[in-house]
Amino acid sequence: MITDDGCELWTSATGRGEPILCCHGGPGLWDMFGTLDLGPRFRLIRWDQRGAGRSEARGPYTLERMIADVDAVREWHGLDRVPVLGHSWGAHLGLLYALARPERVSALVYVSGVGLGHEWHAEFKRNFERVAGEKPRDDGRERAIWQWTADFVTGGARHAEAMATPWFPVNYEANAALSEEMRTVPERELVSACESLRVPTLIVDGMADNRPRWAVDSLERALPSVRRVRFADVGHVPWLEAPDEFRSAVTEFLTAPHCSG
């Protein structure tokens, strides 16, 4: 598909059921929802964000542009109003899209996000260093597998290998630009915006995630319509470590009356 500013984005629809628009993690990574199974009732609308994976390596890498790209993918697939499921950075992108275009989002599934503030990173770094092994010399795929292995409690190397297949170059320019812009948005500004958001939201946490889960507390307090599910002994990618429990929680939420229409 082509965006309004001429950027070519890769997108795919997997399954035949009700659509869910997925926002992958990063920034600068690509869609890894090929391992996500929500059952036959749902159809996953997947895409690679600009500059990453199978999409064109072209900026600008700004929050405003990324939000516009989410809307472009929704429109390209002919969807009027759709649930949005985001993971990690993609959870934050999904939230920003819901804040910008609430009339287009019927429900938000916020998976392993890092919250509205910016104080979580130091604890994340300490947690990562405690569990990570020796850093490989390779700066590409081997390094990513090493980093992602630490995101799991069990089966880390196997899960990380699956996430790195297929492999694409990481867009560090997009990662740096979007990470820096996120740091410029005050938490109080996001809290105020979330207090007016009427989109039903499910927050999903793996409680063994290296990213501290207290960082999401202010988001939970701010949202008027929110549920939160916590999985013990599960890390950053809960649909890989607890697939049945994750599927059950998400499908129960999305099929509830508050998510219809």
From TrEMBL:
Q: Which GO terms describe its molecular function?
A: aminopeptidase activity
The AB hydrolase-1 domain covers: 19-133
List, alphabetically, the InterPro entries matched. AB_hydrolase_1, AB_hydrolase_fold, AB_hydrolase_sf, Peptidase_S33
Q: Which UniProt keywords apply?
A: Aminopeptidase, Hydrolase, Protease
Positions in coiled-coil regions: none
Pfam families per the record?
Abhydrolase_1
What are the EC numbers? 3.4.11.5
Protein's UniProt keywords contain Hydrolase: yes
User: Lipid biosynthesis among the record's keywords?
Assistant: no
Kind of enzyme, top EC level?
hydrolase
Name the family the entry cites: Belongs to the peptidase S33 family.
**What is the name attached to this protein's record?**
Proline iminopeptidase
Q: What is the lineage of its organism?
A: Bacteria, Bacillati, Actinomycetota, Actinomycetes, Pseudonocardiales
